[in-house]
Amino acid sequence: MAVTGKGPYDQQNIFAKILRGEIPCKPVFENEWVLAFEDIAPKAPVHVLIIPKKPYVSFMDFSKTAPAEEIAEVMRSAGQIAHTLGLEENGYRLITNAGTNSGQEVPHFHLHLMGGGPLPAFPQ
Ligand code: AMP
User: Fold this and answer.
1) 0.85 exceeded by the pTM?
2) Pocket of ligand 1, candidates 14, 22, 56: which has the most ligand atoms within 8 Å of its Cβ, to mutate?
3) Which segment of this protein is annotated as the motif Histidine triad motif (predicted)?
C-alpha cells in the first residue's frame, strides 16, 4: 500500500528494521552514510536498494532536511555502487518513488538501482 512520503518517521518500517539488524538482507555495499542491499522482488537482473542510514521518510524529506554533505555522500555512494556492480559499461536506471502517486511503499527514503540487462522503456 502506498504511503504519503510525509509526516513523522516510522521507526517500525521494514528498512528501519533492516538497519537495526532485526530483519536480514543481502547487502552489496555499506559505508558511513548508506546501506545497499538486494531488492526482495527484483524488477531487473540487478535491482539494488540504496538507503541512507539516517531516518528520512522519502525524497521529499531527504531533499529538504538532509545536510548538503549527506546528500552528496548518498548520491556519490549510488554512483560508486553502480560502478562496483559493473553497471557502467551498459548503463543503469536510478529512481526513487516519493509519495502516493508514485506508489512508494516503504516510508524510508531509498533509491532503486536497476540494470544488468535492457530495461523496459520508462515508465514501466
Ligand atoms: P517502493 O515501492 O519504492 O517503496 O519500493 C520498495 C521496495 O522494497 C520494493 O521494490 C520491494 O520489493 C522492496 N522490499 C520490501 N521489503 C523488502 C525486504 N525485506 N528486503 C528487500 N527489499 C524489500
Assistant:
1) yes
2) 14
3) 108-112
- C-alpha closest to that of 28 among 77, 73, 94, 98: 77
Residue bearing cell 535491482: 47
Q: Quick one: cell of 94?
A: 536510478
Q: What are the cell numbers at 62?
A: 531527504
Instruction: Give the residue, out of 105, 108, 110, 114, with the most ligand 1 atoms within 8 A of its beta carbon, to mutate for a pocket test.
Output: 105
Q: Are strands 46-52 and 92-95 parallel, antiparallel or unpaired?
A: unpaired
In ligand 1, the atom with minimum distance to the C-alpha of 23 is 19
CA distances from 10 to 61, 87, 99, 109 (A): 13, 33, 15, 12
Q: What is the pLDDT of residues 15-59, one digit of tens each?
A: 999 999 999 999 999 999 999 999 999 999 999 999 999 999 999
User: Is the CB of residue 25 below 6 angstroms from any atom belonging to ligand 1?
Assistant: yes
Residue 110 annotated in active site: yes
